[in-house]
Amino acid sequence: MIMKHVLLEMYCKCNTEKEKPNYCDVIGHNCIHHNCKYLSTTCCPNEIAFAGSTGVVESFDDCIGFGGEMEPETLDSSEYGVLLSKWKEICKKKIDEAYDEYMEFKNKRIIE
Question: What are the tens digits of pLDDT across the range 49-58?
Answer without folding.
Answer: 999 998 899 9
